[in-house]
Design brief:
With 163 residues, the chain is α+β, with helices and mostly antiparallel strands. The protein has one domain. Helix content is 19%, strand content 26%.
Length: 163
């Protein structure tokens, strides 16, 4: 099974997605991160009821621990998940990061979505993208993490995180 199918996409209409050229921050993130362009079945899916879906993958975007999906699949995930352009342009590769943005998708004075990006780039590296639909109370998350580092005695496995 391809990572695109694991992420829940079959074919996403490119016409309805933002133009990648309008997202220079996202393009720079993709350019500087390390990607696994040929892994198959590299993501695990964990759900907690109808309100939370997490896609888990081994890798931190570093040279020795590349993200487990291709750069094209990551770009498609970002654009099809509804993240705002302003939010995606603030992503930084190979760096500790915490960014968030409340999204007002209609004319109301209250936000409808919350976008969060978090990462560390140390011994216990991870990268997380989360989009929370405040109104629908539904969250989608893409989480990548490094399996082992120079200090680790036993490698961490994706199954260790799924209860």
């Amino acid at each position: 099974m391809q990572a695109m199918e694991l992420l829940g996409w079959s074919e996403v209409s490119r016409q309805s997605l933002p133009n990648p050229q309008d997202l220079p921050g996202l393009r720079e993130f993709i350019r500087y991160a390390s990607w696994s362009e040929n892994l198959v079945e590299s993501l695990a899916c964990w759900t907690c009821g109808p309100g939370l879906t997490v896609q888990l993958g081994a890798g931190s975007g570093q040279v020795y621990w590349p993200f487990p999906i291709s750069s094209q699949e990551f770009e498609m995930y970002c654009m099809s998940s509804g993240f705002s352009k302003l939010f995606l342009n603030r992503l930084v590769a190979k760096s500790t990061l915490f960014e968030y943005r409340f999204d007002f998708t209609d004319l109301s004075s209250t936000p409808t979505h919350l976008d969060i990006a978090m990462s560390t780039l140390e011994n216990d590296s991870f990268f997380c993208l989360l989009r929370y639909d405040i109104v629908g109370r539904v969250a989608k998350c893409l989480l990548f993490f490094k399996l082992i580092d120079g200090f680790g005695r036993r490698p961490l496995h994706i199954t260790n995180l799924i209860a």
